[in-house]
C-alpha cells in the first residue's frame, strides 16, 4: 500500500499544457503514474502573471476528466497566464502541477479559412472567410481573427492531372473574393487555402479542399 507521501507524488498531474485555436483555449493534463490515478479527481486554478492570488475554476473543481476550458478566463489576449492542477484520491491531495506561461495573442494557433468555390466555363471564383474567435461583438456575431492580427489569405490551386501534392500559390492578400482565370475546361481543379501571419511568420493548417471540374 502506498504511504500518503507516495500517493501524493504518484497521483500528481503530469504535462499541464495550454492548447489554443482561434482563442478557444483549453488546459490539458495527464494523470499521475500510479494505477490508482485513474480514479483521481482534479482541481484547476488560474491567474494572470504577476497576480498573487490564484482563482478557482468552478466548472473544473473536482472533475474526473483531463481537460478544462479556460477560453473565458484568458480573454484578455495580451496578458500572460498560468494555470495549475492538483489531484485528489481517497482524501489525499497531490501538490500542484504548474503550466508554462501562456499568452493567447502570441500562442494561439490560427485555423484555416472557410473556402467556397464557384466555377464558370474558364474561371474559378474563390470566396474566403476568416476563422472566428469565440468573442462576440455587441450585436452578437463572433469577431473574426482578422480583427486581432494582420492576416493574409493564401490560396493554392491543385491541378489533379499533374500531381495531388503539387500546390501552386495563386493568391496572397486580404481580398475575400478572388478569381482564377484562363483555366482548362474538362480539367478537375482543387482549391485549398490557409491564413498567413507575416508578423509572427505563422501559417494555419490548410483548409479542406474544394474541387470542381470546369
TrEMBL record:
<dbReference type="InterPro" id="IPR036116">
    <property type="entry name" value="FN3_sf"/>
</dbReference>
<comment type="function">
    <text>Receptor for IL22. Binds to IL22, prevents interaction with the functional IL-22R complex and blocks the activity of IL22 (in vitro). May play an important role as an IL22 antagonist in the regulation of inflammatory responses.</text>
</comment>
<dbReference type="GO" id="GO:0004896">
    <property type="term" value="F:cytokine receptor activity"/>
</dbReference>
<keyword id="KW-0677">Repeat</keyword>
<dbReference type="GO" id="GO:0005886">
    <property type="term" value="C:plasma membrane"/>
</dbReference>
<keyword id="KW-0675">Receptor</keyword>
<dbReference type="Pfam" id="PF09294">
    <property type="entry name" value="Interfer-bind"/>
</dbReference>
<keyword id="KW-1015">Disulfide bond</keyword>
<dbReference type="GO" id="GO:0005576">
    <property type="term" value="C:extracellular region"/>
</dbReference>
<dbReference type="InterPro" id="IPR013783">
    <property type="entry name" value="Ig-like_fold"/>
</dbReference>
<dbReference type="InterPro" id="IPR050650">
    <property type="entry name" value="Type-II_Cytokine-TF_Rcpt"/>
</dbReference>
<keyword id="KW-0964">Secreted</keyword>
<dbReference type="InterPro" id="IPR015373">
    <property type="entry name" value="Interferon/interleukin_rcp_dom"/>
</dbReference>
<protein>
    <recommendedName>
        <fullName>Interleukin-22 receptor subunit alpha-2</fullName>
    </recommendedName>
</protein>
<dbReference type="InterPro" id="IPR003961">
    <property type="entry name" value="FN3_dom"/>
</dbReference>
<dbReference type="Pfam" id="PF01108">
    <property type="entry name" value="Tissue_fac"/>
</dbReference>
<feature type="domain" description="Fibronectin type-III">
    <location>
        <begin position="12"/>
        <end position="107"/>
    </location>
</feature>
<keyword id="KW-0732">Signal</keyword>
<comment type="similarity">
    <text>Belongs to the type II cytokine receptor family.</text>
</comment>
